[in-house]
């Protein structure tokens, strides 16, 4: 195995997993059968993230570079299959991961790559979050249609005309937008990033809110008309972070995966997932979370809970030691939970 230090700037882009060679399983020095089967959703963003991860792990484990070491298994999830309704209506948690967890537990795949913000805080027994990658920018961005004005620095919403229709299926984005701009209308927009962009370009929606991370990974950053600062819109917990799951009894793979983990990202993910867990809302509950390291090394966690129509919004922060990331997130979550009206929990 090669050196396990990580240099985010050196990640190879666009590496592709290939099918296993016809002459059967290969064995790598730890006695493990190759190829390793990687579970992934099939959206362009999911595939990009999976291939980026394969490039990364290959970099740190050169032995995997010399073989056709990975095999992608594309898995359709409930979140992918239901395109005609907002996910909040379907209910339940982990709509983008259930089928992927099942594939892991059935040993149809060895590990899986996820957008961590779509992964439920309590994983099924037998599955662990083995690794989190360096966080991409976690801010949201406005994609602007032809009727929008030029963006200004001081007011990110000023470019939206009065009464404009904004496409978003996220109650978190909707609540914060309506809180700032009660004149706007928000209607659900679904589908992958490209589909949403097309619906703004066609005029069906005046604008849309998307994660900057997704646009950037897909090479579509120029579509971000305005990048919304976290003061104006608190991102979703773990937005911009890719996480990798495996079976907890797969000790050697777990070790390999956790060796390439980004520790900073793990700390903020731990705090943000604990915050989310403590709030215990339904997927109709608008919740935001953002943790970051301060220059003095401590961890600051910000959290937000709101009513979907924007008529209630509570935002607080808590600062503490990085080693207590989970406790910090949980305590902040509990404090928000105590002071939010019952109806926001859906
Ligand atoms: N729910 C879909 C989803 N899951 C992760 C991302 C963006 C990438 C990331 O957060 O890492 C997106 C698209 C979006 O919210 O615009």
UniProtKB/TrEMBL annotation:
It catalyses: 4 porphobilinogen + H2O = hydroxymethylbilane + 4 NH4(+). GO terms for cellular component: cytoplasm. Signal peptide: none annotated. It is an enzyme of class 2 (transferase). Binds 1 dipyrromethane group covalently. Its cofactor is dipyrromethane. Pathway: Porphyrin-containing compound metabolism; protoporphyrin-IX biosynthesis; coproporphyrinogen-III from 5-aminolevulinate: step 2/4. Its EC number is 2.5.1.61. InterPro entries: HemC, Porphobilin_deaminase_cofac_BS, Porphobilin_deaminase_N, Porphobilinogen_deaminase_C, Porphobilinogen_deaminase_C_sf. One of its GO terms (molecular function) is hydroxymethylbilane synthase activity. GO terms for biological process: protoporphyrinogen IX biosynthetic process. Residues 269-336 form the Porphobilinogen deaminase C-terminal domain. Keywords: Porphyrin biosynthesis, Transferase. The modification S-(dipyrrolylmethanemethyl)cysteine is found at residue 283. Residues 1-28 are annotated as: Disordered. Gene3D superfamilies: Periplasmic binding protein-like II, Porphobilinogen deaminase, C-terminal domain. Residues 36-254 form the Porphobilinogen deaminase N-terminal domain. Tetrapolymerization of the monopyrrole PBG into the hydroxymethylbilane pre-uroporphyrinogen in several discrete steps. The porphobilinogen subunits are added to the dipyrromethane group. Monomer. Belongs to the HMBS family. This is Porphobilinogen deaminase. It comes from Muricoccus nepalensis.
